[in-house]
Amino acid sequence: MHSVDYNSSTTKSPNHQNIQSFNPSRSAAILAGGKSRRFGSNKALAPWFTGYVIDAVVQAAMSACQEVIIIANEPEPYSCLGLPIFPDILPGLGPLAGLQSALHNAKAERIFLLGCDMPLLNSELLNLMWEIPTWAPVVIPGTPQGLEPLHAIYHKSLLPIVNNRISAGNLSLQSLLEDIPCHIVSHADILKICPSFKCLTSANTPEELAKLKRHYSSVEPFA
After folding, report:
1. How far apart are CA 18 and CA 9, in angstroms?
2. Partner residues linked to 182 by β-bridges
3. Sequential pLDDT tens for the chain (223 residues)
4. Cβ atoms within 10 Å, residue 27
5. Which domains are seen in the chain, by residue range?
6. pTM of the full predicted structure?
7. For the segment 117-146, what is each residue's pLDDT rounded down to a tens digit?
8. Which of 209, 210, 205, 212 is nearest to 37 (CA)?
9. Within a 10 A sphere around the Cβ of 104, how many other Cβ atoms?
10. SS (H, E, C) the chain
11. d(Cα 20, Cα 22) in Å, to the nearest integer?
């Protein structure tokens, strides 16, 4: 098993480094700081074919974004990715703190926040969401289980709101979404690209990861 070297010229566009050095219009931030209690080990580094789960997430993000960063309080496990790694500003406060770090550190005005445990992430759906014209500060997919906050685009203008909520001890990312305007991507639009919402499915347990691997093996791989 090996992890993909994202500094290799075979895994990035020719202008990747130049784009990241200036002002990208599309940034992605992958949250890799979760406790993985249900999984029993670091799910980002769980085996996924010839690499790890996070490799699949990074590859999809790089196909749709000019900048990809990792949000993690322990950088060493992810150093092999060759990507910028930033800790939470206030560690131990959950996904909202990860969003805070992403909004603070990413270069673009809009940041695609992604979980590290979605190995079927679909770059076509990422691009569809980027291209939605909206004034709303959040673009987020709706699923049968509700909104998916770790597959959503957030505008940097939200940073003061996030800061205030963290200072007040209001750490719920879902609660934030209830209080701000969101453009919700419809089920119909998602299903055109992502049958059965599989590309939005997180692998929270080894059993769930095994199911996603079987699905991946049984159909044409997602982009």
Report:
1. 13
2. 138
3. 333 444 433 333 333 334 344 578 999 999 997 666 777 679 999 999 999 999 999 999 999 999 999 999 999 999 999 999 999 999 999 999 999 999 999 999 999 999 999 999 999 999 999 999 999 999 999 999 999 999 999 999 999 999 999 999 999 999 999 999 999 999 999 999 998 899 999 998 899 999 999 988 886 544 4
4. 25
5. 16-218 (3.90.550.10)
6. 0.87
7. 999 999 999 999 999 999 999 999 999 999
8. 205
9. 16
10. CCCCCCCCCCCCCCCHHHHHHCCCCCEEEEECCCCCCCCCCCHHHCEECCEEHHHHHHHHHHHHCCEEEEECCCCHHHHHHCCCEECCCCCCCCHHHHHHHHHHHCCCCEEEEEECCCCCCCHHHHHHHHCCCCCCCEEEEEECCEECCCEEEEEHHHHHHHHHHHHCCCCCHHHHHHHCCEEEECHHHHHHHCHHHHHHCCCCCHHHHHHHHHHHHHCCCCC
11. 5
Q: Which residue has the tokens 């991507």?
A: 185
**What tokens were used for 215?**
């699905």
Type of residue numbered 77: P
